[in-house]
Design brief:
Number of helices: 14
Helix content: 40-55%
Oligomer: single chain
Strand content: 5-15%
Structural class: alpha/beta
Radius of gyration: 26 Å
Shape: elongated
Distance between the termini: 31 Å
Number of strands: 8
Length: about 450
C-alpha cells in the first residue's frame, strides 16, 4: 500500500469528493473531519476493526445515508456490491442479472463466461454455492458500466482462483478509468492503491494522487446509454417479480372470492338483503385483500440487499410509487375485473354496477398508496406483521366509508358526491404517500 499523501486540492476530473465529513451512528461518532478526493484509476482500501465505520462510509459515499456534517460531491455513476448479493432465489442467474437493466443474453453470457459461470446461466440461484452467488453479484458490477465501484467485503466466500480473478477484474476496471473504494478484511493485491484506516480519533484529511500507468478516458465514453428512465426499468422489474410470484399475486383475488361467497351463506338467500349489503361486503373484502401482500412489499428487497441498489439509481419516493402501482396492478385491478361477476352473485341492480366499479377503481388505487406508505413506515420494525394492519386499517377507513356510501341505492347525486370525495382522497394520496414512504425508506435503510 502506498503511504497516505498530504492533502491537496482535488482535481476537477475527480469522480468523488468528500469535504470535512462527520458521521454519527447510534450516538457514536465514527469519523470526523474526513476529506478525500477520488480520481479515475484510483483505488482506496478501507481498513479498521469491526464497527470502525467501513461499511458506513461506503453507504455514505453511495448516498444510502447522509453525513452528520460536511458535503459529498459525486461526479460519476456508482455500482454497489454490499454484504448481501441482491439475488432472488427463485430466479435463474440470467433473470437476476436482467432485473435492474435488461441486458441481452449474449452480453450476460460473455460476462458470466469470464467469471466461469456461463454453464449456470439458466440455473436458479438458490442452487448455487455462496462463492458462486458472490461471483454472480460481481457480474452485475461489471455489467453496470459504472465509473465508481463500491465494494463491501467483495472476497467473501471466494476461493483462491476466484480471488485472483477478482483482483484481475479490479485492475482492468482501473485501467479503463474507473475507481474503487473497497472495505475488506481479506488481503487484496491492488497496486498503486491507498489505504484509509478508520477508527482513529484524529481528524482524517486524505486525497489520492494520480495513479501512474492508468488510462483516463472521458467519463461519457464508458457509460452505457440508457434507453428508458430508471423508473420504467423499476416498473418492469416489479412487474416481472410479481408475475414470477403468481401465488402471492393471486392471493388477494382468491381471498376476495372466498370471503365474498361466505357472506351469502351466512346471511341467507334473501335478494333484498343481499342487494342492501352486497356493495359494502365487496368493499370490506377488497380492503382486506389489499392488506395481504403489503408485508412483503419492501421486506424481500431489504433482506437480500436489492433495496440498496434501487436507492442508488432511483429516488426512494419513486421506488415506493413503483411498488404501489404494481401492487394495484396485481391486486386492485384483478379485483376490479372480478367485480361484475361478484355483483351478479349478490344480485346487485344494474344501475349500481358502474358506480361500484368507479368507486372500487378510485378506492383500490388509494388503498394501494396508503398501504405502500405504511409498509415503508413499518419496514424493519419488530413484529411488523402485527403493526402493519394496526397502522393501515384506520387510515383506510375514510376510503371505505365514502366507497360504501357511493354504492348505496339508489344511484344519484349523493353517489356522485361520494365519488368526488373518493377522487379527492386519491389525489391527496398520490403525491403524499410516495413522498412519506420515500422518507421512511431513506431513514430506515440509513
Amino acid at each position: 500500500m502506498a503511504p497516505t499523501p498530504p492533502f491537496t486540492p482535488p482535481s476537477p476530473s475527480s469522480l468523488l469528493q468528500l469535504e470535512h465529513i462527520q458521521l454519527e451512528r447510534a450516538g457514536r461518532c465514527l469519523f470526523s473531519d474526513l476529506s478525500l478526493s477520488l480520481s479515475p484509476g484510483d483505488a482506496l482500501l478501507l481498513t479498521g476493526s469491526n464497527g470502525a465505520g467501513k461499511s458506513s462510509l461506503l453507504r455514505l459515499i453511495a448516498g444510502l445515508c447522509r453525513p452528520t456534517k460536511g458535503t459529498v460531491t459525486r461526479r460519476s455513476t456508482i455500482a454497489w456490491l454490499g454484504s448481501h448479493n441482491a439475488l432472488k432465489p427463485t430466479l435463474t442467474v440470467e433473470q437476476n442479472l436482467r432485473l435492474f437493466i435488461p441486458y441481452d443474453t449474449e452480453t450476460i453470457f460473455n460476462v458470466l463466461n469470464r467469471l466461469a459461470l456461463a454453464h449456470l446461466l439458466d440455473c436458479p440461484t438458490r442452487l448455487l454455492s455462496l462463492g458462486q452467488k458472490r461471483r454472480v453479484s460481481l457480474a452485475r458490477l461489471i455489467l453496470s458500466n459504472a465509473d465508481l465501484w463500491l465494494l463491501d467485503e467483495p472476497a467473501n466466500a471466494l476461493d483462491a482462483a476466484s480471488l485472483t480473478l477478482l483482483e484481475t477484474i479490479l485492475a482492468e476496471h482501473r485501467a479503463r478509468g474507473g475507481a474503487l473504494v473497497i472495505a475488506s478484511h481479506t488481503a487484496l493485491s491492488l497496486p498503486d492503491s491507498h489505504q484509509l484506516a478508520l477508527g482513529k480519533p484524529a481528524p482524517l484529511t486524505f486525497t489520492l494522487t494520480p495513479t501512474t500507468g492508468v488510462s483516463r478516458p472521458h467519463q461519457h465514453s464508458r457509460r452505457q446509454e440508457q434507453t428508458y428512465h430508471p423508473f420504467l426499468y423499476h416498473l418492469r422489474r416489479e412487474l416481472h417479480l410479481a408475475c414470477r410470484n403468481s401465488t402471492e399475486t393471486l392471493a388477494g383475488l382468491l381471498f376476495l372470492i372466498v370471503c365474498s361467497t361466505m357472506f351469502p351463506l351466512a346471511l341467507g338467500p334473501s335478494p333484498t338483503l343481499l342487494q342492501q349489503t352486497g356493495a359494502a361486503i365487496l368493499w370490506v373484502c377488497t380492503l382486506l385483500a389489499c392488506l395481504l401482500p403489503l408485508e412483503r412489499l419492501y421486506n424481500a428487497d431489504a433482506e437480500d440487499g436489492s433495496l440498496d441498489i434501487l436507492q442508488i439509481t432511483l429516488h426512494p419516493a419513486f421506488i415506493a410509487l413503483g411498488k404501489m402501482l404494481i401492487h394495484w396492478l396485481t391486486t386492485g385491478l384483478p379485483i376490479l375485473l372480478a367485480t361484475p361477476l361478484l355483483a351478479v352473485f349478490f344480485q346487485l341492480p344494474a344501475p349500481i354496477l358502474p358506480v361500484l366499479l368507479a368507486s372500487l377503481a378510485l378506492g383500490s388505487l388509494t388503498l394501494s398508496l396508503i398501504g405502500g406508505m405504511t409498509a415503508a413506515i413499518t419496514l424493519g420494525a419488530r413484529r411488523n406483521s402485527l403493526l402493519l394492519p394496526v397502522l393501515t386499517l384506520p387510515l383506510m377507513v375514510p376510503t371505505l366509508i365514502f366507497g360504501t356510501l357511493a354504492c348505496a341505492p339508489p344511484a344519484g347525486p349523493a353517489s356522485m358526491t361520494n365519488l368526488s370525495l373518493l377522487a379527492a382522497l386519491f389525489l391527496l394520496a398520490l403525491p403524499s404517500c410516495p413522498f412519506i414512504a420515500g422518507i421512511s425508506l431513506e431513514e430506515g435503510q440509513a
